[in-house]
Structure formats: C-alpha cells, structure tokens
Amino acid sequence: MSSQPTIVIEARPDTIGARLRSLWQYRAFLGFLSKEIVMRRARGTLLGFWWVLLRPLMPVVTLIFTFTSVKPVETSAGVPYSVFFLSGYITWRIFQSALNFLPRTMTWTQSIMRRAYFPRLLVPFAGLAPTLIEFALLLVAFVVVVASAWWNDGQLPLRVGWQMLGLIPAVIGALMFALTVGMPTAVIALFFRDVRYAIRSFAGVFMFLTPVVYPVTFIPEQYRWAMYAFNPMAAIVELSRWALIGGVLNTEYLALSFATNIILFILSVVFFLRAEAYLGDQL
Amino acid sequence: MTPARVSVRNVSKVFPRRKATRVRGISTDGWPALRDLFQKTMRRERERHTRQKRDQLWALDNVSFDVAPGEIVGIIGRNGAGKSTLLKILARVLSPTAGHITMHGRVVSMLELGIGFAPDLTVRQNIQIQGRLAGIPGKRVLASEERILELSAMTPFRDIPLRLCPSGTAVQLGFATMMGLGAEIVLADEVLAVGDAAFRKMCEEQVEAIGASGVSVLFVSHDMAAIRRICSRTIWIDRGHVVQIGPTDDVVAAYMTELLAGRLLAPLTGEALASSCRLLAARLLDENHAPVGALSITNAGYLDCLVRVSRPDVTALVDIELWLGEHHLLTVTSPPMQAPQATTFRTAVHIPGDFLNEQQYQARFRMRALPHYDSADAPAITTEERLDFRVINVHREQSVWNEWSGTSKGFISPRLTWRLSRVQ
Predict the structure, then answer these.
(1) Quick one: which of B83, B177, B364, B388 has the most CB atoms within 10 Å?
(2) Which helix (H) or strand (E) holds B329?
(3) What is the DSSP string of B117-137?
C-alpha cells in the first residue's frame, strides 16, 4: 500500500504549494495539451497547420510595406526599416499571438476537463505552444530579412555579441506578460466569449502604444515615462531591439517593467489557481 | 479488517441554481456565474455548508461510505440522483462543497461517454494519455498496451486517429483502457450503456476479473441485471442522499420495489384531506398483471394505480398522462366511468403492444378529489405520482423497424398496415 499514492480530496481548495507540486506531477500532460491546442486550430481548415505559418507573416508583410513604401518611418538606428521593425516585432508578436490563443484554450479543452483531472494551469501554459511556433518562424523570417539586407547594403545590420543574450529575458518577459493578461481572460472567456474579440482588438491597438512599428524617439521625452510605467511591453520590445540591433537601453525603465511584470504575473497565477477550484462547476 | 481503499466522509455538493436571464435581448447568463466565481476566488475562507436550500441544488448531501480493496461497488439511483456527481468528485473533476475523501491508489475513470478522449490522436496515443492522467509510468502503459488493444478489438486501428474509428469501438477503447491500465481504483459511469451484447459480456467479465485481482471498482449503471451479476455491494442514492448501502441483492430489490411503486409526491393541497384521499401506488404491469420496470416493445401492458377515497363527500377523478421523457406529452387518458365513492379502488389502463417505441416514458398519475357542492369547506386536492418506465426491444427481429433501419425513431411505433397495389 505504501507504494501507492494517497489522494486526499477536501472541500477546501488545495494550497497553492500543493497545486504547484501537482503541476510538476502532471508535467508530461503538457505535451499532449499543447498538441491538442495546436491541432485544434488546424482542424477543419484547408491549409491546416500552414495557418500557423501564414498568420504571423501577413501583418509583417503589410506593416513593412506600409512603413517603407507608403509612409517611410525614420528609424535613426542606421538599419533598414524591415530589420528595425522585425527586431522588436518578433517579441511583440509573442504577446499578441498568445492573447489570440489563450482566451480560447479553456473552451477548447473543456471536454477534456470535464472528463479528467489535471492541474488546469497546464492549459494556459500549453496555450503558448502555437505562440512559440510562431516565434520560431518569425525568428527565421528575421534571419532572412537580415541576410537580404546584408546582401543589399554589404554590411551586417546586426550587432553580434553577448548583448544578443538579452533576447532571452525579452522573450520570457513577453511570455509572462501574455500569461498575466491571458490567464484571467481565459477564465472569463468561459462565461463570455466576447472577451476573445475584445482582447484581440485590444492587442491590435496596444501595438501602436508600444514602440514596435516606430522607434521610441517618436514619443516626446516628457511622456515617455508614462509609456514605460503603464506598458510593460514597451521595455520588453526595447530590450529585444537592443539585443539584436543595438541602441540605447534605459535600464531603470527596464527594471521597472520587469518588476511590475513579475508582480502582476504572480497575482495572475494566484487568481487562476484560486479560480481553478470553482471552475469545475462551470464547465 | 483491511483498511478501506476509498473512504468517503460526509461529502456534499451544492450547485447554485441559476435562471437564464436576458436584458434587452442580450443574454446575461454568464454574469451570475462569473460573479460567483470572482467572489469565491477573492474571499479568503470559503463559507461551508450554508443551508440555503432555496436556490441551491444539493446534488449530494452528506454521503459517506467505504470501499475495500477488490470490492466492486454498484451505484444505483434514478437519473439526477447524484451518481455521476459522486464519481466526478472522486475523479477530482468537481470539488466537494463539504466533506473529505481519502483514496489509496491510482485512479482511472471513464466519466462521460463520448468519442474517446482526444479525437485527433491515434488509438495508442489515447491509451498513453489515459495512463498519464492516472499517474501510471509510461513503461507500464506500454506494457499493457497490447492487452488493451486486444480487449477493445482495436488492434487493426492502433495508429488511426480516434475520430476515424467507429464510435462504438471508441467507447470500447475507453473501457478497455480503464480495465487494462492496472490502476488500483476504477470509476466507471454507465460503461455498459453502449456496445453490443458480446462487448457487454466482456465488460462484465473484465470488471469481475480486475475485482478479483484486488482493484476496487465503483460502477454506476441502470442495468440492474449487470449490477446483480458483478457487484458485491451496492449503494442506492436518491436526490443526493444515500438511501441504502448493503449487499447488492437487498439494495437492488428495495430499489426495484420503489421504482415499480413509483414515487408518491407530496400532496399539493389539503394535507388532512390528502391523508384520506390519495394515490396509494402506481405500477407498470405486464400482460399477465405482474409488476415490471419495463415493457417489451411488442407486448401489451397496464398502467395501474391504487386510489383511496375514504371520505364520502368527494369525487375522485383519475387521469394518466403519458409523456415521452419529461418534455413531450403523448396523451392524457381518464377512465370513462366515475370512481366509486368512499372506497379503495384500483384502475388500470391497457397499453397495447406494438404501440410505444423503444424510449424512456413517464406516466403521470393524477388524482383530483373534488368536494361535492354541499361540502364546500373541503378544498379540492390533487395528488400526483410519476412513474418512469422504459420500453425495450427484446426481440429485435420482431420489431417493426427491423425491416430497414434497425434504429428507432419517433414517439410511438405502432405496427401500421401497408398496402401496395399496382396502378398500371
């Protein structure tokens, strides 16, 4: 008997610590859920999995075309606009794409949740799978754009060096902020699907409040603090751009952004874990 | 005595009962649920056992029992009695409102029938996932894979996505996985409802076999015959309460008696009068006037009720409504003659054979006791009793439907005469 696990079910929800431990126990389930979510997207479509590749590329082409040919944007970074844009956009897209998927993940996995127990927190984490695929793809697109710029201008528009490691915290920060916004929305989306559409439009607008398509210098000096203070994504996008093409990095704003990001993330996880216990009745 | 493998103590589950609401054409169904969720999430300590029965549904109320290793326990009760809720709590899909449960061992469950678990994944991947959910190491799952495939007769489909497999076999897979994974506790909700006769027989044998090997099984079914064959002990749940726990034969017998007798609902008005004028029992009888729980589709039967009218100043009117399920009224019928006064009488209506379809029907017996003109002080009273019964097709070859579809559609299935004549 001692080798068998003992399961105790109480009326009181499990403690956060117990919940995190069970998250670890069920880690193998993450792969399955990710696959379900990626495949779910492709189900019933003609192009299937290729949509994962097509979707992020369409706005890239449109935006680059608009801001190079229609209304050129002065980047002052000494690199072609396409390189400048993508160096920030690849990180931004993590946030946007995750907000696109996360609110739907709970509804998608509802039938599984009705039949079996597993820590529900795995669902939003698995919901990042299509986002990570998109990120990998955009990274390839970035390399292609850099290579073609190198070919055209004869000089590499990248700053190669240890600073490139800065991309890692930028990606983690974007994933965290996406989860921070995405987890409560995923819960609310179980009751109101409106959230899905709202959050998608919100992400679209939010992009223009973040220095993605334009350099941060477009914003007057005296208002810049507001953007950094209220938009953790601003510093994250700046970090990603700094890591790839160089420039100035405001470390104070970066620290502020990561501090708020971490605090909000923890609050969001705690909310989700607490809500989890009551979700069963609603499924 | 061996320690219990599953011990359930004072478990209750309350569902809030919410009405669908609309404000200016916009559905606001989600609001109360969402508000509820936020309130509960934000509050530090959850209030326990608030006994506001008015807008709450007590799906389970203070349920306690133990299951020993190797014991196969049947759970019976009407639809909506709380059987599935209980299993869902044990499977941790729902959390109890009060009480606690201890389980020693790994749990596999088959809760909702449906087309498998992950329709896009192959049969083998589905087996893997079930194993992971139960916390069984991947190697052990791989080892039992062959046996599971064999049990479910899915060997030829092993690498095919589940959604492309025949739906019946997908259910068989769920069952076989549950049996073959080697968990210590198995929760089975109506696994016998689908599948052909051979599969059902196999299911029963499997359940018995794993019970013999020390696995505890909780087995929900409406199939009393199966419960009798495989369960050593049975729990009868009604409206969230445990009515009886004990040896299967006793509990099933008590349950069947209650089912056949039908439920006596509380009289709607005039309590004093009701005690003297009421429906005593409603039963379903077969052709030979023996009480039964179901009718065969080809055979006739009777809906029979016993009425007591012990006051001379009232007239009892009996009518019987025949419903399909809970929603479709088929017909209302009342006896052509007036009931004798101040007496206990029995009245029965004949249900012809080849008339009702293979469905779940409900007969609502209603007795209205109307006071005579000269005793206006006596209120009119109504007692109602509902009797659920099934019509089953025992001999499919005799069915009118057999000729073409083999499926049964429609509220009724009378044997109609056809004529075929040549025109030219």
Answers:
(1) B177
(2) strand B328-333
(3) S-TTSBHHHHHHHHHHHTT--
Q: pLDDT of A211-250, one tens digit each?
A: 888 887 787 878 877 788 788 898 899 899 899 888 778 8
| CA neighbor of B174 nearest in space, from B219, B108, B220, B116 | B116
Residue type, A11: A
B313 phi and psi angles, rounded to 5 deg: -95, 20
3-state secondary structure of B62: strand
Within 10 angstroms of residue B375's Cβ, the number of other Cβ atoms is 11
Reduced to 3 states (helix: H, G, I; strand: E, B; else coil), residue B147 is helix
Q: Could you give phi then psi for residue B336, rounded to 5 degrees?
A: -70, -25
Helix (H, G, I), strand (E, B) or coil at A276: helix
Amino acid at A105: T
A114/B3 touch (CB, cutoff 8 Å), yes or no? no
With contact defined as beta carbons under 8 Å apart, do B378 and B270 qualify? yes
Q: What is the ipTM of this complex?
A: 0.75
How much is the CA Rg of chain A, to the nearest whole Å? 21
Q: DSSP per residue over B333-353, as a string?
A: E--SSPPPSSEEEEEEEEE-T
Which residues of chain A lie closer than 8 angstroms to B161, CB-CB? none
> Would you say residue B421 has pLDDT above 60?
yes
Check A11 against B99: CB less than 8 A apart.
yes
Asked if A191 lies within 8 A of B36 by C-beta distance, the reply is no
Separation of alpha carbons A77 and A84, rounded Å: 8
CA dist B237 → B7, B22, B77 (Å): 17, 36, 5
Single-letter residue type at B393: N
Candidate from B31, B37, B109 with C-beta closest to A282:
B37
Tokens 């004549």 correspond to: B421
Residue of B nearest to A1 (CA): B104
Within 13 Å, how many C-alpha atoms sit on residue A207's CB side?
A: 22
Helices (H), A11-49: 16-25, 28-42
- Among B101, B112, B133, beta carbon nearest to A9: B101
Residue B341 C-beta-side C-alpha neighbours within 13 Å: 8
Chain A residues in contact with B191 by the CB 8 A cut-off are none
Instruction: Categorize the per-residue pLDDT at B212 as very low, low, confident or very high, splitting at 50, 70 and 90.
Output: confident
Tokens of A109: 């996995």
The single-letter DSSP state of residue A163 is: G
Cα distances (angstroms) measured from residue A13 to each of A67, A119, B41, B65: 52, 12, 10, 22
Which position has the token pair 């039908």? B262
Considering only the beta carbons, identify the residue of A7, A32, A277 that sits closest to B129. Answer: A32
Contact yes or no for B114 and A274 at CB 8 A: no
Nearest by CB: A277 against B95, B105, B118 = B95
Q: Is the Cβ–Cβ distance between B303 and B348 less than 8 Å? A: yes
Reported as a single tens digit per residue, the pLDDT across A118-129 is 888 999 999 999
Cβ distance B82 to B11 under 8 Å?
Answer: no
d(CA B315, CA B79): 35
How close, in Å, is residue A21 to chain B by CA atoms? 14
Phi, psi (deg, nearest 5) at residue B297: -60, -30
Are the Cβ atoms of B117 and A116 closer than 8 angstroms? yes
Q: What is the pLDDT of residues B88-131, one digit of tens each?
A: 888 888 888 888 898 888 888 877 655 456 777 788 888 888 88
